[in-house]
Amino acid sequence: MKILYLITKSNWGGAQRYVYDLASAFASRGLEVIVAAGGNGELITRLHDVGVKTRALPSLMRNISIIAELKSFFAIYRLIGEEKPDILHLNSSKASGIGVICGRLLGVKHIVVTLHGAPFREDRMWISRKIIYFFTWVTCLLAHRVITVSKQDEHDLRGMFFIKSKVTTVYLGLMYADLPERTQPKSRTIHIVSIAELHRNKGLMYALRAIETLHKEGLPIHYSIIGEGEDRGKIEQMISLKGLHDTVELHGHVTNAADKLHEFDLFLLPSVKEGLPYVLLEAGRAMLPVVTTTVGGIPEIIRHEETGLLVQPKDVEHLTNELRRLIVDRKFAKSLGIALHSHVVQHFSHSKMIVETSKVYNLIESKK
Are the beta carbons of 41 and 129 closer than 8 angstroms? Predict the structure, then answer.
């Protein structure tokens, strides 16, 4: 049995983590696994380290280019023709759109598409969202099975013609183990952290506006942003404009950043578009209180005032208020972190993700 995974970018984000987890898990179970991606980023390096075969597709990139799309089409077509996978598992919009056509043309028997957050929910002009909706529908129509990572995305897709019977939600999951002891002693300063790609979908500009207000109020805070991306220049400019150099720190990309979450006091994810973020599961593993938004599958992890605090996306005033609430009421903050830890351990496990994906692959029988 051979599985070919295809994803647009090879950096290290939520979708790449998902591909890594599945590829390494099924390879360890004796299946032949290959992962193809654009570039030679951290995903490729990590897969090499665990002995999973990879193929780089230099023409496959996120930005739209007609020449690059044609090159990607023929490269993916050749790849699928050479490898002849039994299962073709596609991730991210561009790789899925091209891959599902190539897979159908080459007669792949089992094509699976995973949506990591409905792309037509992005903060774009309405006409762009309509076009993206159409192409998402075509991609799902040509796939044999569609995996969503949240019930919200499943609900969105089930409204599409001829798609309902193909869709299954498989929650992401982690392996949970004891965390190391905190090395930095707790202090009066509340250390807030975000781990996110520096992209407009993550809403970090709204976070900075909230941090600015709290800083002006004299609250003892320090905000760390871990990640890289195309909006770094804009974020640096806003930090400079608001005079937040001593309060906000951009760490850039940090390998295994989630393993350092226990060193912080509060996790912030102000996204305007999401699927089901791994980082919230990782925050739960570290028992961090969370302030985040109501987008995508986030409310399936964070229940307001039970396992964290939720605000509407782009609502800076309420975001500021909820951050202030946890900065001031440390007992309440701690209780949320403990509750979130219990919730993610119970409902979002790595083993369950692998079992449910095996059912989608028809490797094990699904109970009716």
Answer: no
Tens of pLDDT, residue by residue over 5-45, are: 999 999 999 999 999 999 999 999 999 999 999 989 999 99
Which tokens go with 262? 């226990």
Phi, psi of 204 (to 5 degrees): -70, -25
Residues 101-110: pLDDT tens digits?
999 999 999 9
Q: Looking at residue 210, which CATH number applies to its domain?
A: 3.40.50.2000
User: What domain range is 17 assigned to?
Assistant: 2-173+349-360
Residue 183 covered by a domain: no
Query: What CA dihedral angle connects 329, 331, 333 and 337, to 10 degrees?
Result: 180
| Rounded percentage of the chain residues whose pLDDT exceeds 90 | 86
Tell me if 180 is assigned to some domain. no
Tell me, yes or no, whether 231 and 279 share the same domain. Answer: yes
Distance CA 258, CA 265 (A): 13
278 plus 342 within the same structural domain: yes
Write out the H or E segment, with its range, that includes residue 169: strand 167-169
Q: Which helix (H) or strand (E) holds 38?
A: strand 32-38
Q: E strands of 240-340, at which residues?
A: 248-252, 266-269, 290-293, 309-311
pTM of the full structure: 0.90
